[in-house]
Amino acid sequence: MSARGTQAQALAATAFRLREFGILVALLATGLFFTLRATNFLTGDNLQDIGTNVAIVIVVAVGQTMVILTRNIDLSVGSIVGLTAVITAQTLAHHHGLSLWVAALLAVAVGTACGLANGLLVAVARVPAIIATLATLSIYRGLVFQRAHGVTINQSDLPNGFLDLATRKVLGTPFLLFVAVVVVVLGSAFLHWTSSGRDFYAIGSNPAAARFAGIAVTRRVILALTLSGALAGLGGFMWAARFGTLNAVSASGFEFDVITAAVIGGVNVFGGSGTVLGAVIGALLVGTIANGFTLLRISEFWKITFQGFAIVVAVTIDALVTQRLQEALRRRRRREVAEARAEARESPA
Amino acid sequence: MKALALARATFGRWEALLVLLIVAAGAWSTTLSPYFLDTGNLLDLLTPYIAVGLLALGLTFVVIAGEIDISVASTLAVSAVVLARVWDAGANVWVASAAGLAVGTGLGLFNGVLVGLLNLPSLAVTLGTLAAFRGLAFVILGGEPVTGLPEGWSQLGAGYTGPGELVPIALLILLGFALLLGVLLHATRFGRYLYAIGSNREAARFSGLPVSRMRVALFALSGSMAGIAAVVLIGYYGSARADVGNEFLLDVVTAVVLGGVNIFGGSGSIAGVVLAMILIATLRNGMGLANISADTQGIVIGALLLGAIVAGNLSQFARTRWGGRARATGGRGEVPRSEEVAVSSKT
Question: ipTM of the predicted structure?
Answer without folding.
Answer: 0.85
